[in-house]
């Protein structure tokens, strides 16, 4: 078995999330040479003198994936892993840091690496080390995605450090089957998650403050709630949207303090996802007004069950008190015009803009000009001369924002200081940053529609297909993995499977069957003859001479009917209602002649039509009779949803197996409209 000793090199960060190591190129060469030698020995021992190529030996002998036993030559500690690349320096091996700690290795220590083929894993029991593992919404998807990307092996006793979203969660590999070290590549593993209650878990739970461990307050539309928020912190509420059928208005009112002032810097943020922040929200009012209001249209809340409301504390040393009001409003309320009643003799003051009676305008203007002054920046606001309100009045010189000088610092911070997203996007506006992080940011966390894992969405779509499907970088890559179509057994990209299935559906709806024999008791396809019978049924009526007007043909059909009605066919399986054997009621010659006249007349009329559809009642062989019986039973079994012709086709295809025929007709027959 291949074994080599190497010195431990400096750790590579890119391999810390898995069990894969870097080996020198000579390791691959010696592995291939050994596989050739082993193959030669096998050929000699078996008496085989067949020539073989170097590449053939390689594919025949090297396992896939290549897995190794990694051992500390001093302590004899052992772990298992795969190989990332054969690109390390000669004599050097690079291991993940967790593997170094497990083997108790230091930089420069010697490591023994031995080729070891591990059995495929069938079962694993994982124990979460901390209590926050419940934040993972889909364990199967998270583990499958992480192991597929980073691991070739699992060893009992090792700790998996799984990245899920922006957080990491540790799981102890408690037990494995069929052995204590298994391969996890190209295999299905049953995984049991069993909570681990020990000192670490309890310590983690106790470390969470009591107020954070308590359940979040839940409101229903129409309720009012009062609370406080610490400076620079968040207070969150959940609003139940059940039975909401109109627009929603949320109001935040900051409470006055003993000094008579209110702390007007608290921010009002709302989102459909948990824990919205200043830089990550869908709706917000970041103004300095005492009363803040957010109106959300019903269409924006379709399909949502919970709305998450956050209040961000003001940037000062005191707690902020507030009251939140929730209420449903109708569309008419949003557009209701404000009507005022003005006297006919009213006039508008040029100084303050107020409407006053014309007879008192002179007195009003004298008083107004002596005591009031308009905003010097032209916003139209009116103040008392030399008042504190006028002195504190403020306009932003970079935008249209106005307020008091106390609003300036907050406004500058939120809307005119550069902010940088984790992805590198830069903007001066907190609102623009929040919109970026909720829409196009590559670091935005999404539940991938294909792997069902919480991952960054990555870059914006570039191809027409990805743009139409709304696929960002991760989903485009993940959706490019192929699966086998159950219909045509072709390998189809996952993101194309819906379109591919639609193609099969359209093809299915467009399927047609060749016309069936015009004999109602027959199941064979019609042939190209005037009666549109199959070859078996038309055989007795075939004539080689010219037959103008189909006179001789009608005579033969009449004789056939007369014989059936009088003597019958004598076949015990016959179900023909125009046969004495089938109906058990033989007729004499006169009665038979009277009975067949309408049949012959109808047939003659049908043959004269431009598009004839003749109907005949002839006796058939046992095979056709049996197929028709099974097809009629199948027709009843599927509730007449598919035509009898397709039921006949299913019975013929599946050789009269009723259960397989039912599956066939449900998979292949055009769906009923």
UniProtKB/TrEMBL annotation:
Residue span(s) of domain DUF7590? 214-321
Name all TRAFD1/XAF1 zinc finger domain ranges. 471-503
Report domain Ubiquitin-protein ligase E3A N-terminal zinc-binding positions: 555-595
**Keywords carried by this UniProt record:** Ubl conjugation pathway
On whether rRNA processing is a keyword of this UniProt record, the answer is no
- Highest taxon of source: Eukaryota
Which Pfam family, giving just one, matches this sequence? Answer: TRAFD1-XIAF1_ZnF
The molecular function GO annotations come to: polyubiquitin modification-dependent protein binding
Q: Name one GO biological process term.
A: ERAD pathway
Q: Which GO terms describe its cellular component?
A: VCP-NPL4-UFD1 AAA ATPase complex
Quote the InterPro entries the UniProt record gives.
AZUL (IPR032353), AZUL_sf (IPR042556), DUF7590 (IPR056012), TRAFD1-XIAF1_Znf (IPR049439), Ufd1-like (IPR004854), Ufd1-like_Nn (IPR042299), UFD1_N1 (IPR055417), UFD1_N2 (IPR055418)
Which positions fall inside the Ubiquitin fusion degradation protein UFD1 N-terminal subdomain domain? 61-119, 120-195
**Looking at the keywords, is Transmembrane helix present?**
no
Spell out the family assignment given in the record's similarity comment.
Belongs to the UFD1 family.
Mind telling me what this protein is named?
Ubiquitin-protein ligase E3A N-terminal zinc-binding domain-containing protein
